[in-house]
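Structural biology now treats backbone shape like a language. To illustrate, our science desk offers a sequence and the tokens encoding its fold:
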Amino acid sequence: MTPSTGGTAPEEGTKAPSRSFWTRSFFLVWQGQLVSSLGDVVYQLALGFWVLKVTGSTALMGTLMAASTLPRILVAPFAGVVADRADRKWLMTWMELIRGVCVTLVGIAAFGGWLQVWMVFVAGVIIGLGGAFFGPAMGACVPDLVPSAKLVQANSAMQMVGTGSMIFGSVLGGFLYQAMGEARLFLFNGLSYLFSSLMLVFARIPRVIRTGAPQHFIADLRDGFRLSWDMRGLRILVLAGSVLNFFAVIGLVLLMPLFERTEGLGPARYGVLMGAVGVGFFAGFAAAALVPVPPARRFRIFYACSITLSLAMIAVPLVPFPVMMVLSVVTGISNAIMNGFIQSLVQMAVPADMRGKVFGLLGSLSTGLTPLAMALGGVLAEFIAVRLLIVSCFVVTLFIFLPLALSADFRKFINLDPAAQGSSEGSPPHLGPLSPG
């Protein structure tokens, strides 16, 4: 399927991206995201424990997490269209600025002693809306900053931002929360968003100019949906991923109350455990960046990682803390490899003027049930043992992964070889639908 939007051309006066991997613009974007992601990890950890401290309710904690996620899911498909129509650099800059001001005000309110639960709910909605526009724009612009031969490495470097932040933010966040309290950590996250927006101002991100006839907004949205749906292997992944994420999110959300309620664990050890997951993520993305995987072997590695991830998380709430740490590292490695494959394949398969729409739709569809999972997990934990809920959720994910091995379309998508599709150096190939339905 060829989108009716026409081709794309570089903006007049914009230089083509350098063949070097660490260009000035890529580094500015990368370091801005490093600081912002670190702030996000610390903020989420402090916020979760603050809500539990103030209200004592796991249901309210889960609902608060859902409040920041639901707007992102609902708005993401439309935000993806905006990301393809707008100047992505300034769209991302404004989203970081707005989120920075919002979270800074939350920090100031906490310092003043007049922070209320409804305020962090409102902040959560604003953060979610900002993320809905920022995410598709960021996913779409990375291939324009690096040559296609460096795309896996670039994605790994960007993913390492999140994993590195998870390592240091989670490990330090638990200790910092106990030592400094929530107000300073809230303020740090607000300032981190402002720093990221400043870095984007100085970055040079090519603007994609569409050479075809202009389309109506809804027609643009429909084209993105059609392109995503016509890739049957991707369609299977998204549908299965929605159900997988539902149960996995319930299990992951309940780790915080498990640590809060269990003697000998607590916020500090929870932070250390999340840091162990981050170490695994970092190792997984590093392996994906440094060790080339032949396309024909990609599915076997992907599937082995999926089964390993489920088995490890089933065991986490049942074993002593040192073993939890090892299993968390294994979980992070498996998840990083799986996500690295998917991210790069989608970027290489979709043309530049369609990436925002596709990333917005995929993000919305694959995480559509996440807010319900967050809220439901918190409610169930009021009546059912948290440890039993976590184990049950990841047993379900194991049985959802198993049928994927039987899908030829899914295998074909994961094993896709862009070189065989006539990719050209410097720009991602436009691949047609895989086994169109």
Summary: Confidence is low (pLDDT under 50) at residues 1-18, 422-437. Residues 20 and 370 are 38 Å apart (CA to CA). The radius of gyration is 21 Å. The first helix runs from residue 24 to 55.
